[in-house]
Amino acid sequence: MFYIPADGHGLPHNPFNAIVTPRPIAWVSTRDGTGQDNLAPYSFFNAVAYVPPQIMFASTSEKPDRDGTKDSVGNIRDTGVFCVNIVEYAMRGVMNASSAALARGEDEFFVAGVEKAACATIDCPRVAEAPASLECRLIQILQLPGKANFTVFGEVTGVHLRDDCLVDGRFDVTRYTPLARMGYRDYAAIGAVFELARPDD
């Protein structure tokens, strides 16, 4: 099968996000200018640079009360900071609950029953029990082609690692089982980990 996206795929569901998998999930926490907290998952997410450490996530939909975007991007525009919390398999239920379309100002931490903790380098909450959290300062928000498509780039200014995930000086992902986004409504739990040495090692 071959299709040109602009012409449509002719399938019952769009296969695009099922092709680019698995994807890590950025569970983005923000605080608006009035002190209201927000928490939402985004699966267009990755690390993009080592020094300084930088990440990106993309938001691809909008809310009627947010002027063409969603609460996360709106809050980041206003404050310049955000935190990316890493999602483990054990948190799949509360992560999913935090994706509900709530009105602006409603706190997903409270609605989903997620415990907050304070960040150290930014004025923003983080998920207290997350395996890792990346405190970020905004670098830029890039508007992409298409309605409500925005990519947010941030510099990581603080890193929280849960103590039980550190083994012999390494962050061990098998200690918490990362949750990954697949296509459609599918997710995956990452369990098998192996090493490959590079040819020039």
From TrEMBL:
Keywords, comma-separated and alphabetical: Oxidoreductase
A molecular function GO annotation: oxidoreductase activity
SUPFAM superfamilies: FMN-binding split barrel
Alphabetical list of Gene3D superfamilies matching this protein: Electron Transport, Fmn-binding Protein, Chain A (2.30.110.10)
Ranges for domain Flavin reductase like: 18-173
EC numbers, comma separated: 1.5.1.-
Enzyme class: oxidoreductase
Protein known as: Flavin reductase family protein
Provenance organism: Meridianimarinicoccus marinus
